[in-house]
TrEMBL record:
<dbReference type="GO" id="GO:0008967">
    <property type="term" value="F:phosphoglycolate phosphatase activity"/>
</dbReference>
<dbReference type="GO" id="GO:0006281">
    <property type="term" value="P:DNA repair"/>
</dbReference>
<dbReference type="InterPro" id="IPR050155">
    <property type="entry name" value="HAD-like_hydrolase_sf"/>
</dbReference>
<protein>
    <recommendedName>
        <fullName>HAD family hydrolase</fullName>
    </recommendedName>
</protein>
<dbReference type="InterPro" id="IPR036412">
    <property type="entry name" value="HAD-like_sf"/>
</dbReference>
<dbReference type="InterPro" id="IPR023198">
    <property type="entry name" value="PGP-like_dom2"/>
</dbReference>
<dbReference type="Pfam" id="PF13419">
    <property type="entry name" value="HAD_2"/>
</dbReference>
<dbReference type="InterPro" id="IPR023214">
    <property type="entry name" value="HAD_sf"/>
</dbReference>
<dbReference type="InterPro" id="IPR041492">
    <property type="entry name" value="HAD_2"/>
</dbReference>
<dbReference type="GO" id="GO:0005829">
    <property type="term" value="C:cytosol"/>
</dbReference>
Amino acid sequence: MQYELIIFDWDGTLMDSVPRIVSCMQAAALEAEWGELSAAEVEDIIGLGLPEAIAQLCPGILPAQAERLRERYSHHFVTADATPMLFFCWG
């Protein structure tokens, strides 16, 4: 049997991205002048879309500040953060 396409869930299934998500969101919140976020607070929003995550983490955040936080989070996650994302060990 030949397959044209294989789809699987990478993030959180094959790879543990929680430490990087936490690190990046904490850095972004500080840079957006929101303040410190605990690891537990950030872990609670994992699985939400970024706009929903920011709204839950930062109730009352102004739109410009939310956009700055979103931009800084994306920057850290894609470019600046070196927190390893390791494969889960099964077996």
